[in-house]
Amino acid sequence: MVTAKESNDIPPQEAKKTIAIVQILRLGDIIQTIQTAKSLREQHGDKYQLLLIARKQFATPLKNLIDEVFDECITVDLKDLVLKSDKVNLENTQKNIKALTSKINSHHIDVCINLSYSKTANYLMSIIDAKHRIGPFYDQEANIVIKDKWSQYLYANVLETSLNSYNLVDLYKLIIGITPKENTENTIKRSARNKVFVHPFASDKKKVWNEGKWVEVLFKFLKDNEEKSVHLVGAKGDLDAAAKILNNPLLASYKERIHNLVGNKSIAELKDLLDDDSMFIGHDSMVSHLASLKRVPIITISLGPVRTSETVPYIAGAYNLSPQTKCFPCKPDTACDFYQCHADIPYQPVNEVLSQVARGEEVTNGSLNKALSHFHLNSININKTSYNSLGILSLEPVLENEASYEDTLKKFFEITWCFLINELEGKNPIPKISDKTHQKLLKDMQGLQQLFELSEFGKKYSRYILEEISAETPNLNKIKEFSKKVDEIDRLSDIISETYPQLSPIINYGKVSRANLHGENLVELTESSFYSFHDQSSATSVMYELCERTLTLNQKNKNSNNQTTIR
């Protein structure tokens, strides 16, 4: 038996450090956060206590999935936190905020990570007592603060441009510090499937095909595949749209093979239904992410404001179809009357991809061109997810078309940011580009040259400030003069961004970086400014080299099918 004195000599077991993740967005975002947390567990085991802070209405239906990874989930009901005008409700709101803060802060959080990127989440981060904060939060003067580089990247690019090529799960991993690597188990199990789960709905009408297109796909599929069945899934709010599909006369002969599950299955029940004889097709939604957890074959159709690289289900082997429409993807608040991107995806290629996947076949350029005419394929992108050499999930083209200008830039940016922030250097194939893209890249090199020179000036004047501060008798007027030059460089960068909007990811990142300089005195802040301009200079240099090599090698191999790789 251990005495009291002896027990004092036994060192207490070191308490696990607590990592809290704030994710107050919707169902799909929570599933992506769960996938990120699983990777953290795989890399570090049970070394950390994981705490999820999520909205009650979205976390409750996903409780079973959350409990598989997180030690605890604290739910937030935003209705209880909204300030009301009358005195009674104001007092209740204050009590609710205080109670929530007390509950969260009782956990002695070591690191709190914001993966939500909303004003509400930023304010919530500000009242959480944590030793370290990652991601955006507000300081006491209500200024946005973002300290880590990957969160700065996400804030500057994902929210502002359409040139991000990273899946959100990979971005979450990079923010947290999880080393990217290929997960061979996170791959779709390909085999013939007889049950097709269809989710033809979305919260935004710009994201969803009209019912007529889905009727055409289902009619042709059921007609050509007599042994297969369709299972329509969705929420109660989708019942009217489901009725329009199911009551269409074209499908009258196949009603015995169409099962309507809309509005009568919970998320847990739906997950259990996705078995080894199932596959999924639908729009960008929570259901597609749910399907990735069960490793069933997945086909998603991206329309409107959907950014395919960011939201495609996080699993290798999934297919994505998107339009080549110039305005795709649009912003959520962009008005649209014609929906050209919807028209640019015919039902024929959707049906062909669906049929091939349901038969357990690999969808290839040859199989598509054999089954379809050029007119069916010339306005559509068909991509497949796979891990690249850095262990990051990427979308790779199935059709052997020339890479679009936007896709070429996205690949360049993917290489640039990984090298700049994490010093990761991967191998990527030189894209086959058109003459039009060739000319655009030549113009981009002029903008990159200008931006590089501006960045070098930023480094120079930051260095001048440091040298003046270090002098025995610093000249305040000179310091002010050099500081004005630094401010002028930011204004000139904005002009470059207007002339070369495709370079805005680098410029936006630099501005966010300099708005969050590290340091407690002028010397430290100026050093931070120098390194910010250095990062911007390095990014432009890498992009310039990638453009130069691509143009040179494409010109050299214009009539050759040889593929070369770049580092």
Give the strand tally: 17
Q: Which descriptor suits the 3D outline?
A: globular
Tell me the number of helical segments per DSSP (H or I, 4 or more residues long).
Answer: 23
Spans where pLDDT lies below 50 across 5 or more residues = 1-8
Provide the β-strand percentage band. 5-15%
Structural notes for this entry:
This protein is an alpha/beta fold and 567 residues long. It contains 23 helices and 17 strands. It has helices spanning 4-8, 27-44, 56-59, 63-69, 78-81, 87-105, 119-127, 149-158, 168-176, 211-224, 239-246, 267-273, 286-293, 308-311, 340-343, 347-358, 365-371, 374-377, 405-422, 435-470, 476-499, 504-515, 522-556; strands spanning 17-23, 48-55, 72-76, 109-114, 130-134, 137-138, 144-145, 195-199, 229-232, 258-260, 278-283, 298-301, 319-323, 380-387, 393-397, 428-429, 565-566. It has an eight-stranded mixed beta sheet, with helices on both faces. A five-stranded parallel beta sheet has the order 3-2-1-4-5, with helices on both faces. Helix 10 links the parallel strand 8 (195-199) and strand 9 (229-232). It is globular and about 90 Å long.
Please describe the topology of this protein.
Elements: H1 4-8, E1 17-23, H2 27-44, E2 48-55, H3 56-59, H4 63-69, E3 72-76, H5 78-81, H6 87-105, E4 109-114, H7 119-127, E5 130-134, E6 137-138, E7 144-145, H8 149-158, H9 168-176, E8 195-199, H10 211-224, E9 229-232, H11 239-246, E10 258-260, H12 267-273, E11 278-283, H13 286-293, E12 298-301, H14 308-311, E13 319-323, H15 340-343, H16 347-358, H17 365-371, H18 374-377, E14 380-387, E15 393-397, H19 405-422, E16 428-429, H20 435-470, H21 476-499, H22 504-515, H23 522-556, E17 565-566
Helix pairs in contact: 2-9, 2-13, 8-22, 10-11, 10-16, 19-23, 20-21, 20-23, 22-23
